[in-house]
Amino acid sequence: MSSSPQPTIKQQEKFWDWHWQHWQERRTVNQWKQTRHEKVLEFVKSVAVTHPRILDLGCGPGWYTDQLAQFGDVTGIDLSESAINMARQRFPNINFIAANLYEYSLGRQEFDIVVCQEVIDHVENTAALVQRVAEILKPNGYFVLSCTNKFVVDRLDERQFPSQPAHHIGRYLNIKGIKAHLSPQFFVSKLETIIPMGNKGILRIVNSTKLNALLGVITPTTVAERLKERLGFGYQIVILAQKKR
């Protein structure tokens, strides 16, 4: 069976314009994403760089770019012009760029930190994205990224992870896979999974109502959830990586 043709950049741009124009129907703002963003902020805060230059790669309408501005001088870039127009209206004090990251002239070794939330699994070439990030980061610069955990996605049903429209790229990675893509250019300093979920295979047992009720008698729910995250059963992978010299 032949695979679907790769959507062009123009088709991807059109999809993301549509996505952000319909962000409310698509439930783009939700508690899962807020939990992820709080972990990303935690990782950024842990970096020992005074007033860093930060790039928010795949910034969308800038909701999280604005919060990154507390740490330093932040720039947001996104393929979707619709998203960037929204961002500029909401946060006129921040520099936002509507452009293709691979073609736009960002300076080499220009940024101290690149933040990339839910982008790396929605591009046509993961290695090319990692290479581009390495180019624009200063020596020993930091890459803070999040992505969907393939181990969990493969164990969700249709209600939890519905099918996506045409021209949506979803190339999900497990922990081993994302580490392999990062290792030529980066050292992984921190890696956590968050938001345990899933109801197939081993996750059917791990997340069963009966088991969790029993665990709740023995230990606080937060402790059990943290253990699942440590075991790699979280829906999201969040990483702090440092560029190699």
Task: Please describe what this structure looks like.
Helix 3 links the parallel strand 1 and strand 2 (73-78). The chain starts with 8 loop residues before the first helix and ends with a strand. The longest helix is centred in the first third of the chain and has 15 residues, at 31-45. The protein has one domain (9-196, 234-243): Rossmann fold (3-Layer(aba) Sandwich), CATH 3.40.50.150. The protein has helices spanning 9-21, 31-45, 63-68, 81-90, 126-136, 150-153, 175-182, 202-206, 209-218, 221-230; strands at residues 53-57, 73-78, 95-98, 111-117, 137-148, 186-196, 234-243. The chain is 38% helix and 22% strand. By secondary structure, the chain is of the alpha/beta class. It contains 10 helices and 7 strands. It is globular and about 55 Å long. The protein has a 7-stranded mixed sheet with strand order 3-2-1-4-5-7-6, with helices on both faces.
